[in-house]
Amino acid sequence: MIANLLYICLKNIVMPNSCPKCQQKNVVKSGIVNERQRFLCKDCHYYFTVKKLGKQIDSYFVTKALQLYLEGLSYREIERIIGVSHVTISSWIKKYNIKRPSHSEFHPLYKVFKQNELVDFIQNEENIKGFGLIITEFGDKYMMIKWERFRK
Fold this sequence. Notes:
- The chain has 6 helices and 6 strands.
- It is an alpha+beta fold.
- It folds into 2 domains: 48 residues, no CATH class; 90 residues, no CATH class.
- α2 packs antiparallel against α3 and α3 packs across α4.
């Protein structure tokens, strides 16, 4: 049963829905060119390959990574929090042309909490007094970013 489901999933991923030239659905596999599957439309006799999609990442995580970058976290710190490669994070920052404002005198601290841990942390006034604080949700956990307020 699992093998059948895997075959169906792979078949749906590999086979294109229709010919890009005539839009007909009469498409068959026709060899491999440059390590990519080649297809033939039986109606218009057009040969084509399909672009490999790769791993898709939810835009929620892209947005969170960019927010964390703007807060001053390094690529590797963001990688540890979100679970996405620091190289991927770097490419997102280049893609969206994000420029981090210069904050030479502080580096934010971050912690990841479960809900009850976060409530306990915030109830203690000493933990939040004199700090800037942002709390954001990550699935079933919460991430707190804090930094010392600027002093004269």
